[in-house]
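Hi there,

I know you've been waiting on this one. I reran it after we fixed the sequence typo, so this is the corrected version. Both the input and the resulting structure follow.
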Amino acid sequence: MTENVLITGGAGFIGSHLANELLENGYRVRVLDSLCSQVHGEGARRPDYLNAEVELQVGDVRDPSAVKRALKGIDAVYHLVAVVGVGQSMYRIAEYTSVNNLGTAVLLEALLKHPVRRLIVASSMSIYGEGMYRRPDGSVVTAERTLQQLQAGEWELCDEYGNPLAPIPTPEDKVPSLASVYALSKYDQERMCLMIGRAYNLPAVALRFFNIYGPYQALSNPYTGVLAIFASRLLNGNAPLINEDGKQLRDFVSVYDVARACRLALEAEKADGHVFNIASGRQITIRDLASRVAKVLDKDIQPEITGKYRSGDIRHCFADISRAREVLGFSPRIGLEAGLVSLASWLEGQIAHDRVSESRAELAARGLML
């Protein structure tokens, strides 16, 4: 029997790819999306990239009547709706809390009356704050930088004796360190879903996404993923702006791998109640990433290392994906090189409005860019 799946926020970057993945594997897909202007532009209509087989319902996840309508006849739900952006969340506090936290609460209340086979919620690597580190003696620790260190341009983390700490892959059992309103809201989303899931026997799974890239990213949204921001700058002939010294380590994963991981989270029998890192399991410096993006776009533009620090940013974080491998059967298939080539192909002919300088000025004016 064919299952009917609802994707909240499904007209966006990740949701549209997930819709394709589900349709290709025999599911029927409905999307609930508000088509917000920051992602889709003013007066947005159904995106051209959204599969024609997808049933789109335009509505706000905070609207109980819209959610009730969207859940009719649905067997499983992916909850992807979220306002994204670490920096912006620190001054648009009410909006982030309303969409991310209240929206999730409204959905959960509706699911109590319309239970489904499984609820899968999109969480984020941002809840970790700093990743995991190893001391020179081999012991594993968590650590954070002080404001005084950041103001002095001391970017790397050290132990209490001044010895440098070595970053290591971050597992799901790391204690969260919530450094932004966005991170707090994502943690709230996943905890609410898992908590209500346990209380009401509503099988729930949380996926902590790392840095996702690929076609259909909102290139004109200055609060989207860093790779899309770099592409937007380069397409407009501008140098990518890199905070600190550019040696921060991150984990970038193709949206095609993410979509497959999402499907596996629906199908894996033992996934219920668990949290999974969804990432490539590899790391790269932000400076190296900017150079690779410039190369695939055939742009001879060097990144600008600003030496600045944005409130809520962390130094290093990349994923341990062993749990996703073991329980979901997830293994990334698309390496960064091939993924960037695919992205570059899609970028040909795309129009990107570079609003990065505007967003950085906004953060600086509020004291959030040091």
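Quick highlight: The longest strand covers residues 118-124.

Best,
R. S.
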